[in-house]
């Protein structure tokens, strides 16, 4: 009785230059070296061929996982200098950076208000259930759960909601059918 080893699978590779398909990476690399001599830099990992060394080196970062360009504001690292530059634009637009949760803010006022959320103190307490909140607006929002009235009615189906935001979200189901 003969046995067939199913653990070996063929992994086809496609030339990104001309679209030819090969049984394995070695055959693809040989093809690129012979057929695309004008593209002298061939990636040994995926078979991609490049004409310029700079493009080839940039591509190699994808396989190495190397991220040499580090943001001095938040510590995020990038493989390409251009990606770091794009990232830095977000810091320019939102220069106030919270290291605890890695969120940036446009204004110092927003940032200061946000920092309170990391404090353990929750001075705003619900008189109904004793649940505590950092911000007063959170308590006001929460209080609606204790009120029995639903002041916001859907004009389409008549369903009622305690919060206008819930009604607005609900209205999405009616607009999907249009």
TrEMBL record:
<keyword id="KW-0804">Transcription</keyword>
<feature type="domain" description="C2H2-type">
    <location>
        <begin position="96"/>
        <end position="123"/>
    </location>
</feature>
<feature type="domain" description="C2H2-type">
    <location>
        <begin position="124"/>
        <end position="151"/>
    </location>
</feature>
<keyword id="KW-0862">Zinc</keyword>
<dbReference type="InterPro" id="IPR036236">
    <property type="entry name" value="Znf_C2H2_sf"/>
</dbReference>
<dbReference type="InterPro" id="IPR013087">
    <property type="entry name" value="Znf_C2H2_type"/>
</dbReference>
<feature type="domain" description="C2H2-type">
    <location>
        <begin position="152"/>
        <end position="178"/>
    </location>
</feature>
<feature type="domain" description="C2H2-type">
    <location>
        <begin position="69"/>
        <end position="96"/>
    </location>
</feature>
<dbReference type="Pfam" id="PF00096">
    <property type="entry name" value="zf-C2H2"/>
</dbReference>
<feature type="domain" description="C2H2-type">
    <location>
        <begin position="41"/>
        <end position="68"/>
    </location>
</feature>
<keyword id="KW-0805">Transcription regulation</keyword>
<protein>
    <recommendedName>
        <fullName>C2H2-type domain-containing protein</fullName>
    </recommendedName>
</protein>
<keyword id="KW-0238">DNA-binding</keyword>
<keyword id="KW-0539">Nucleus</keyword>
<dbReference type="GO" id="GO:0005634">
    <property type="term" value="C:nucleus"/>
</dbReference>
<dbReference type="GO" id="GO:0000978">
    <property type="term" value="F:RNA polymerase II cis-regulatory region sequence-specific DNA binding"/>
</dbReference>
<dbReference type="GO" id="GO:0000981">
    <property type="term" value="F:DNA-binding transcription factor activity, RNA polymerase II-specific"/>
</dbReference>
<keyword id="KW-0479">Metal-binding</keyword>
<dbReference type="GO" id="GO:0008270">
    <property type="term" value="F:zinc ion binding"/>
</dbReference>
<comment type="similarity">
    <text>Belongs to the krueppel C2H2-type zinc-finger protein family.</text>
</comment>
<comment type="similarity">
    <text>Belongs to the snail C2H2-type zinc-finger protein family.</text>
</comment>
<keyword id="KW-0677">Repeat</keyword>
<dbReference type="InterPro" id="IPR050527">
    <property type="entry name" value="Snail/Krueppel_Znf"/>
</dbReference>
<keyword id="KW-0863">Zinc-finger</keyword>
